[in-house]
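Course assignment 3, question 2. Fill in each field.
Student: A.L.
Task: Predict the tertiary structure for the chain below.
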Amino acid sequence: MIDKIKMIGFVLVCGIFWSTALVAVDTLTSPRIEKYLLEKKRKKVLEALVIPYEANTIEQVYTSNVSTEEVGGKTIYKSQDGSIAFEFAGAGSQGPLTGIIALGPKLDTIKGITIIKHSETPGLGSRVLDPTNLTNFQNKKIVPKLLIVPAGTAAADNEVDAITGATLTSKAMEKILNQNASETTAQIGR
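Answer field:
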């Protein structure tokens, strides 16, 4: 009986110690994590809006070139040239996909796209989300609708070539971008 009480006491002491240690670590690291996430998002917004920056000037470039506005519960990032950017989200072929899309001042043309997080298969679907391939979306019309077409056949100003071997992710991107752009521009009212 005494052994069981000692064991229970030991487990309680260990549990209290490790719980306290975890709370302390969380308390100490939370501000750094929040700062990192804010800087990461600002960097993605600048990239989508095609605003150049240096690693040590992200904060300064962001605050002097971008303003924010809340519209329908969504944060809209506005650049000095009248372009806007906003976060998009949807279901990729393998899981959730989030990023930032920027539209030109008339809200009908893609200025840039960056990816924040995805679950696509490395080397296959994730190729669509590679920054080099995302430049294929720049200056493409999203109004009335962006179209992802078979590789090598994009001819119209609203068509983007699909990436061979990543058809499902390409089609998911088409759906996500069209839906998010349509909803957001409708909320903005332009």
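Instructor remarks: The beta strands are 66-71, 74-79, 84-91, 96-103, 110-117, 147-149, 159-161. The first helix runs from residue 2 to 48.
Grade: pending
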